[in-house]
Amino acid sequence: PVCRLLRSLYGHPTAGLFWEREYKAVLRAAGFKDMAGWECLFVHETWQVMLSVYVDDFKMAGTEKGVAQAWKAIRGPDKLILDEPIPFGPYLGCEQEVSTMKRSEAAERVQNIYPLVNGGQSAPAPRKPDEEIKRIRWHMKDFHSQCLDRYKELRTQNGASTKLKDYAFPSIDDHQIPAEEFEEPGILCKDAAKVGMKCLYGARFVRFDLSWPIGDLARRISKWTRACDRRLDRLMGHLNTTLNHGLEGFVGDRLEECSVLAYCDASFADELATSKSTSGYFICIVGPNTFMPIN
């Protein structure tokens, strides 16, 4: 059967634009404001909730009362037709696990961090050490397993071994690499981007410790050498060894008791061939019983 098209469907060049206008109009009418610098994030200051929108996937966080009010304000026949809200689950390939921990454990884990935002002074001992506070853990074990499978597949296609060694660290000192390997084309010279860029997606979510080695290899995609093969093998061996690693945060304080901590550092001419330096930073929210990674 054939019928006249009344509304744009998936695949229409401007379908995304129409949908964006539609949901933003509803959100703004409900009192949500755009978050500067983050096109798909919105905040409602009165209800104290944040909303993330990815196409038609809406994720909301905030106080229990505020979240309930926000959902009621944006859902309905004359607003947005959305499914019933469900607890947090996988989001863009990232698993989210919510649990609790004792306040005393939280204080112990930030004992060397909190002084950085408190003038060098340690946090006071928690008044209720056995009280439970919320904790959330993010991990991408399944996704990183796919990265390892892809790497082994490409190694097999290029006639190389797929056995991975256990490594405690993801990088290797360039002085440990024979000089001739910096000149000879690598085994994965045509396929390196297929695994490197896949790993980068997971690193940006939950494995900040892998950002530098992956970024370093990404700069060498067009001039891949055997030294790059060695670096990548080291990285994948470490990823296989630390497959259960993830990112974790916990909150046990009021907002006014917390501070934003930005830690930055740089190497000094650590690039063997060019003597280039590399800088990096880490941002989190810290309190006497709080640690929440941001970027």
Largest sheet, spatial ordering of strands: 1-2-3-4
Strand content: 15-25%
Distance between the ends: 52 Å
Tell me the series of helices and strands, N- to C-terminal. Answer: HEEEEHEHEHHHHEEEE
Say how many strands there are: 10
Structural class estimated from helices and strands: alpha+beta
Low-confidence residue ranges: none
SS element count, helices = 7
Name the helicity range. Answer: 25-40%
Q: Largest sheet, if any?
A: 4 strands, antiparallel
Overall shape: it is globular
Characterise the protein shown here.
The strands form three sheets. The chain has a four-stranded antiparallel sheet, covered by helices on one side. The protein is about 30% helix and about 20% strand. The longest helix is centred in the middle third of the chain and has 17 residues, at about 140-155. It contains seven helices and ten strands. The mean pLDDT is about 90. The chain is of the alpha+beta class. The chain starts with 14 loop residues before the first helix and ends with a strand.
Which terms would index this structure?
alpha+beta; 3-stranded antiparallel β-sheet; globular; 4-stranded antiparallel β-sheet; 7 helices; 295 residues
Question: How would you summarize this macromolecular structure in one to three sentences?
Answer:
The chain has 295 residues and is an alpha+beta fold. Helices cover 30% and strands 22% of the residues. A hairpin with a 4-residue loop joins strand 2 and strand 3.
What is the element layout, followed by pairings?
Layout: H1 15-29, E1 33-35, E2 38-44, E3 49-54, E4 57-62, H2 64-74, E5 95-102, H3 103-109, E6 132-139, H4 141-157, H5 192-205, H6 211-218, H7 226-241, E7 247-251, E8 259-266, E9 279-287, E10 290-293
Helix pairs in contact: 4-5, 5-6
